[in-house]
Amino acid sequence: MIEASRCESAASNNTGTTGIALVLSDARVYIRVNRRWNKIGNAYRIEVVRTRIREPSQPLTSASAVAEHYRTLQKYDREHLVRLDLDNANRLIGEETVAIGTANMALMSPREIFMGALLNGAVRIIILHNHPGGNPEPSREDVEVWKRLKDAGEILHVPLLDFMIIGDHGRYACVDENTLEVRE
User: pTM of this prediction?
Assistant: First the structure.
């Protein structure tokens, strides 16, 4: 005999973000011994169900358009790392500030970066972060992180489309294998 109760809580809002419904099932497990039912434990199952509250945006067509839209990152005095989740038509379906660091670094790992992207159903991602000093030139650490994220994205089949650094006065840099140039 299994007695089950179900509790559902849906998180929905009107802010244009993806809603998450958390479903928790609690089942009490019994065993019959000598004509008597004895409780032997609880079993739990958690499900995460994603629902779309708004339609995806227009496709992101250029690095300069993304840099212009997120140029507000230049105002922060600490590094902010933002992940943009894209669908198969390069439309924005989600964004998350994954890390807020110090004046010269933000701790990040592929696990934290890709976890939200996978839950959002992203097909590819763009990573943005600011350099509070204003110079968007990639550091040695930026290039190392880009390589790790690129490799992780290939393994997960969620490729890293761009790794962008936002500087001051509208300047930005895109890190890739061929160029490490600063653009305006």
Answer: 0.68
